[in-house]
Structures are given as structure tokens and as C-alpha cells.
Design brief:
seven-stranded mixed sheet, two-stranded antiparallel sheet, globular
Length: about 240
């Protein structure tokens, strides 16, 4: 059996950052603290203030790949980060997630068992999907992986396609998981990492986005238009 140290080299952690560089440094430091050897990390700076971006580069640049883009939202940052992945597997991780125990080796083993499944740290219910008529009521469409930690094989990502940047901050992870389910049908399955290996500190970066409620409404409308048409947007 491969050691966790070897398995770590098969996975890249992609971490978006919009300001809040101290959160990114804490996130990466906790990863390194609990994993023996090198961990592949891509940090995508999504148009942070220059001082924020420079702090991240100064403290992380020698250990991680740091990419930069004008501020476009987390969805675009995910896509840019995934372009830089050269490993078989990737995990999208919010920068306010803390590693409490080693988990990357376990993630690779679980994804190797079924490279077409998704992997996460917790589930959430998207009750809006229960009201969209196109979804078969016999299937629990509303059970989703929480978007702060989602892992998959890069081959699966190529099949499903990029995250839809029409939804810049919200709903794009829901949209992507629905496209994955539509692609695989009954074969779609997801797994959770063991409890207690990661802790999410509650959308620390998103809370700093002043227009987040406006963006949520806009992205929700775009999601509904895509999946349910004009009538659903009008009712929403």
C-alpha cells in the first residue's frame, strides 16, 4: 500500500483568495502541519488589494503556486486554479478551512476507488431544487456536497466541464454538481472524508464582500434561468 506521503503527490489543493490573506496562510499552515512531506497547493488571488496579494506571495510563494487575476469571483478563480493542476486529483478548498488531522492520503484512496465520484467534507440541502419541476421527485436532488470542500478526479472535471462563470460567487458549485449528476445518472455518488479532519470557519472571505447579497440574488436568478427557465425566475 502506498504511503500517505506518496499519495499526497497525486492531489492538488486549490485555494481561492480574495483579500483575507491571513486566512489563506492559516489554511496552508494547517495543511503543512498535518501532512508529512510536500503538499501540492495552488492559491488563486482573485484581485485582492495589492498589499494583500503581496503578503500572500511573500509568505507562501516559495511553497505554493500563486496565480493572480482581476477580481472576477470565486468561480473564475476555481477555473484558473484547475488549469494549473498537473495531478490526477484536485480538491477545491475555501481559505477559511482548517486542517485538524491528515486527510489528503485518505482523499486520494477514496477517489481511486471510484474516480467518477465526488468527495467532500459535509453535505448540505439545497431546498430550492425541490421546487424545480424538471427534477425527478424520486431522486434526492437537494442533497449536495458543501461547496467549501469538493474533490474529484481531473478526468471527471474534463468530462463535466468548467464551472459556469455566469454565476460568479454563488450557485456555481450547485450547478456543477447538477451537471455531474446529469452526466452520470444513477452512477453518480459522493463520499465524505472522515469526521473531524477539517473545520470550516464560516465564509470568512465572503463576509467581506460588501455587495454579497446583490450577487447572491443575481447568481440565483441566473441559476434558475439555466435550470428552470423564465417562469421560475419570475416566481423566485
Amino acid at each position: 500500500m502506498k504511503s500517505d506521503k506518496c499519495l499526497c503527490q497525486q492531489l492538488t489543493v486549490v485555494i481561492p483568495q480574495y483579500n483575507a490573506w491571513e486566512e489563506t496562510i492559516s489554511c496552508c499552515s494547517s495543511l503543512w502541519r498535518h501532512h508529512e512531506g510536500a503538499v501540492n497547493v495552488v492559491v488563486v488571488d482573485d484581485g485582492s488589494a495589492p498589499v494583500e496579494a503581496e503578503c500572500a506571495r511573500r509568505y507562501l510563494g516559495h511553497k505554493v503556486t500563486v496565480l493572480s487575476q482581476p477580481h472576477q469571483g470565486v468561480t473564475s478563480a476555481w477555473n484558473l486554479g484547475l488549469q494549473a493542476v498537473r495531478t490526477s486529483y484536485a480538491v477545491l478548498l475555501n481559505n477559511d478551512a482548517m486542517t485538524l488531522q491528515p486527510w489528503i492520503g485518505t482523499a486520494v484512496r477514496l477517489l481511486e476507488e471510484n474516480p467518477r465520484q465526488l468527495l467532500g467534507a459535509e453535505r448540505r440541502r439545497e431546498r430550492l431544487l425541490d421546487r424545480i419541476a424538471m427534477f425527478d421527485p424520486g431522486t434526492d436532488w437537494s442533497s449536495m456536497l458543501a461547496g467549501w470542500c469538493v474533490g474529484f478526479s481531473m478526468k471527471l472535471f474534463a468530462e463535466v466541464g468548467r464551472f459556469d462563470e455566469a454565476m460568479s460567487l454563488y450557485w456555481s458549485d450547485t450547478d456543477w454538481q447538477l451537471r455531474w449528476r446529469a452526466l452520470l445518472g444513477v452512477a453518480a455518488s459522493s463520499r465524505l472524508l472522515p469526521k473531524g479532519v477539517l473545520r470550516h470557519r464560516g465564509h470568512q472571505s465572503t463576509q467581506r464582500v460588501h455587495e454579497r447579497s446583490v450577487l447572491w440574488q443575481r447568481d440565483r436568478s441566473r441559476f434558475l434561468l439555466k435550470w428552470a427557465g423564465d417562469a421560475a425566475v419570475g416566481r423566485g
